[in-house]
Design a protein that fits this description.
Length: about 425
Amino acid sequence: MTQTLSNSLEEHWMPFTANRHFKANPRLIVGAEGMYYTTHTGAKVLDGSAGLFCVAAGHGRREIAEAVQRTLTELDYAPPFQYGHPASFELARRIAALTPGDLNHVFYANSGSEAVETALKIAFAYHRARGEGQRLRLVGRERAYHGVNFGGLTVAGMVNNKKAFGLGLPGAVHLRHTQLPEHKYVVGQPDTGAELADDLQRFVDLHGADSIAAVIVEPIAGSTGVLVPPKGYLNRLREICDAHHILLIFDEVICGFGRTGKNFGADSFGVVPDMITMAKALTNGVVPMGAVAVSDRIYETITGAAPESAIELFHGYTYSGCPVATAAGLATRDIFDAENLVERAAQMSPKFLEGLFDLKDLPVITDIRGYGMIGGIDLAPKDAPGVRGLAVMQQFYDAGLMVKMTGDCVLVSPPLVCEDKHLDEMFTKLRDVLKSQ
């Protein structure tokens, strides 16, 4: 059913959006169910990006809505400082049951950005608690996205996200990104490039290991184009961190909860970090929520260094683990378990990757990358970087397909509940639009 736009769009300054372009030709969503959105004109649009990588269990899940509604009438809010409520402990238990190794402690935030900020602060607090408070240097990576707060911007490697906002925290350094020329059109992990992890050893040699608190990487760099790690790369980072008492943080805001075909990218690539940040699919995108899973060693070191009955970590948010978010998180976990969504992702991945790489004959495409249920398609720029990407995004939308664009890169990551027919529809529409370029 078509809805008329009766109000001005000017008052809302939209995030990460070409506001003038959007308001001249609005793409407004008024409904969602299963694999599809409904636009304000009544059109159906296939969700090819799981919203923003977050709607893993599909749209309109009544189980989550009913859990949230029930919580709102039973316990609308509980302060997280010096008080608690049972659901936040239960969700933490269920998250800890999924995380690898001894990452058994969960600290709640409200987004991926806040989860990253939290992890970086925990890294500083850990080293201070163990008597090495001088470790204040952070290591990020080129072409990385770690949210939009100042800590995340400091370790991130997306130039346009950083250049208007100053230098961030002092002393940060960045590993080279892992996308080498010989990696074009490689399905899954490239065989070459593990030696790029030795950048971390170079930083140790140059700055001293005792100055470095942590290194943070996405197992798969998602927002900058799905950069899949070379074989052995993450293992090598782990080895260097262990040798020099540097913490390794995996930012799994995108990779977490089945996107790689396992619970976390850490599981897919066989490397256990010291912390994992998560958000997005944690609540199926219904309620904002982020979290950091922390190792026993970090938790016990920080809590053990504080005086008895004292606050151990002076950090947190008004809405950390709030009742509504935890209700959504628990209902989402129930859906994942009942429908075996992680296993389903692993089973759907071969068809997804086959359809993705079958597009490589299209002249406008310059590279394709993919792993599990996420893929990136690079398009040849036109006129200026991002111009073609914005135009193509609009064409996809008009054709009934939603994707995530980063510049001239098409990112696809359908909900994990997708069926063969949905993948067929998605790749047909991708081909039809891209072959016209």
